[in-house]
Design a protein that fits this description.
Elements lengths: L1 H18 L3 H4 L4 H9 L4 H19 L2 H6 L1 E7 L2 E8 L2 H12 L6 E8 L5 H20 L8 E6 L2 E8 L1 H12 L6 E8 L1
Parallel strand pairs: 2-3, 5-6
Antiparallel strand pairs: 1-2, 4-5
Length: 193
Amino acid sequence: MYQYRVILSLIFCFLFPWLQGCVVATAGTGAVGTTALATDRRTAGTIVDDQATQVKAIHAISRNPALWKQSHINVMCYNNVLLLVGQTPTEEFKREAFDAVSEIPKIRRVHNELTIEQPISFSVRSKDSWITTQIKTKLIGNKQISANRIKVITEDGIVYLMGLTTPEEEMIATDIARAIPGVDKVVQIFETI
């Protein structure tokens, strides 16, 4: 029994960074989930739709084996707005990625921020993850903004911020992101309320 718990713990620790967006949707019955839902400006249905859209987008892109193998693509969805970031070696692949996700129902807009270059190294991806973690931590620690109203992803030193925000929240989040070492640029994909 102990061995199974250790194995499950290791699997959870490995998968947690990829599952963090699912916490709000699946933890709705606990105190954390209730608090997160109460401060999120999206409806519960939209939160679930966003999670489903991310999975569908990854699946749609992966159905093109050449694109999938030769590219590094991350997907993020917030309030039915989809963001594609990463690297792909050709303009044709960039277009194919866009076309693949454009057919997914309920997407209102697709921001295709893929760059035409070879995929970045694992060490650069690790630095990007560290930058994202630092920004999220600073957002959680900031009393002027609710951290779950803003999604953050970093790709090759470029930070992308998404959310339903006020102009003040946008400024706070952007300033936090710009202050983190290693950030080359901050791209705002906010919907101002």
